């Protein structure tokens, strides 16, 4: 049974392609453009996997 995936990245076309592939495999996908927004929402909503770009504005797990 597929789970929930969060995509955090600013590259719109790449995110849309990834989202389409994941949804075709029956994953529930949440998209976020900014790390801060994602972390705020994901503090109360749980996902199984986070796919995150490394060049996000604001807070992110690798580069600030």
Order of helices and strands: EHEHE
User: What fraction strand?
Assistant: 15-25%
Globular, elongated, flat, extended or rod-shaped: what is the shape? Answer: flat
- Overall radius of gyration: 11 Å
Descriptive overview:
This protein has one domain. It has 64 residues and is an alpha/beta fold. Helices cover 33% and strands 22% of the residues. The longest helix has 13 residues, at 12-24. It has a 3-stranded parallel beta sheet with strand order 2-1-3. The protein contains 2 helices and 3 strands. It has helices spanning 12-24, 35-42, and strands at 4-8, 28-32, 49-52.
Helices, strands, pairings?
Layout (H helix, E strand, L loop, with lengths): L3 E5 L3 H13 L3 E5 L2 H8 L6 E4 L12
Parallel strand pairs: 1-2, 1-3
What's this, in brief?
Helix content is 33%, strand content 22%. With 64 residues, it is of the alpha/beta class.
Keywords for this entry:
2 helices, 22% strand, flat, 64 residues
């Amino acid at each position: 049974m597929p789970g929930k995936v969060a995509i955090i990245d600013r590259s719109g076309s790449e995110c849309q392609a990834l989202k389409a592939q994941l949804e075709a495999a029956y994953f529930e996908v949440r998209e976020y453009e900014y790390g801060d927004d994602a972390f705020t929402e994901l503090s109360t909503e749980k996902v199984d996997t986070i796919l995150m770009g490394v060049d996000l504005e604001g807070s992110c797990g690798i580069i600030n």
